[in-house]
Write a structure and sequence with these properties.
Blueprint (H helix, E strand, L loop, with lengths): L7 E3 L3 H4 L14 E6 L5 E5 L5 E3 L4 E3 L2 E3 L1 H21 L7 H16 L2 H24 L5 H20 L1 H9 L2 E7 L7 E2 L4 E3 L19 E5 L4 E6 L5 E5 L1 H14 L3 E4 L16 H24 L1 H5 L1
Parallel strand pairs: 7-12
Antiparallel strand pairs: 1-4, 2-3, 2-13, 5-6, 7-11, 8-13, 9-10, 10-11
Length: 311
């Protein structure tokens, strides 16, 4: 195979990861980052080109031949984003309309391209295929439909990254854009699934996930150890200084949302990153209030249905 074929494909792009290069062990030609297991127990120093990559992750086969058009499309977008970050965002300069579109397109791709997103899709299709096969056996049907689903599963993640790009980008363009800048001496970390949705209204339940159209949803993506992007439907806009409490709580969420690994430009970690809850007095009060409410709710349900249980 020709050497220029991009068989090793990053699900978190190299241009993005280079921002977390440790300046004490890196050179311009060979940047290194620190990669940690999600629980923070194991760490290693590795070259950017070696981490968060998989062979033929976005490669599709057309008439038996490997096609790299998706990877090439992603690489083109990454290059445009990298220039915008270097010339504008890093210098805290407002973006033009075209640059805003490219940024939102980059965020759209980052929401979809990771291994977590692929694995979730494949688990869904595995369950669907299994149920379809059970129906085919029960009704003595041919395996036409389950075979079709297997073929669709093979490329659903790869094609979905580009197929959904216009729709997600259009929605993101309507949201407010804020760049949260860490105070001097502080840093953001990142992860193998760095772009996340969070809705504070949903944090007390497990039934519904956050969605882009929800009123209080926030889309966050650390862009460097110094800057974190936040898209929302609020009036949070521009370049905003983020103090220590906010930075460390943000890092706690970044680590908790990671799939298998988180990334830093330093070998040192902080205990707060592994904390289940923010170290905030008022938030702890909210947790206690919620737990008390749940206890009373369970007691109420028990009292209401106690006679039914006895029967």
């Amino acid at each position: 195979m020709p050497k220029n074929k991009p068989t090793k494909q990053h699900y978190v792009p190299q241009c993005y990861l280079r921002e977390w290069a440790d300046p004490t062990v890196s050179s311009n030609q060979e940047p290194f980052v620190w990669i940690f297991d999600k629980d923070g127990r194991n760490k290693r120093k590795d070259k950017v080109k070696n981490v968060l990559a998989s062979n033929d992750l976005y490669t599709i086969k057309i008439k038996g031949e490997k096609n790299y058009s998706i990877e090439e499309t992603l690489a083109n977008l990454e290059g445009k984003y990298a220039k915008i970050f270097e010339k504008k965002i890093k210098r805290k300069i407002p973006l033009t309309e075209k640059e805003h579109i490219i940024l939102c397109a980059f965020v759209s791709v980052m929401l979809q391209r990771t291994l977590r997103h692929r694995d979730n899709l494949e688990r869904f299709y595995d369950e669907l295929i299994e149920r379809t096969q059970e129906m085919e056996v029960a009704h003595q049907l041919s395996s036409t439909k389950s075979d079709e689903l297997k073929r669709y599963k093979e490329n659903t993640h790869k094609l979905g990254v580009v197929q959904l790009l216009p729709d997600i980008t259009e929605l993101l363009l309507k949201m407010s854009v804020a760049f949260l800048c860490a105070e001097k001496g502080l840093k953001f970390i990142t992860s193998d699934d760095p772009c996340n949705l969070f809705n504070p209204d949903l944090q007390w339940q497990r039934f519904y996930g956050p969605g882009l159209a929800q009123k209080n949803v926030q889309v966050t993506l650390p862009l460097s150890p110094n800057i974190l992007l936040c898209l929302s439907w609020s009036n949070l806009r521009g370049y905003i200084l983020w103090d220590k409490t906010w930075v460390e709580n943000t890092n706690r969420m970044i680590r908790s949302y990671s799939y298998k690994y988180f990334i830093s430009n330093s070998s040192k970690t902080k205990r707060v990153w592994s904390s289940r809850y923010p170290l905030d007095f008022f938030f702890i009060l909210k947790i206690l209030k919620h737990k008390v409410e749940m206890i009373f709710y369970r007691l109420k349900m028990w009292y209401r249905f106690r006679h039914v249980r006895k029967r």
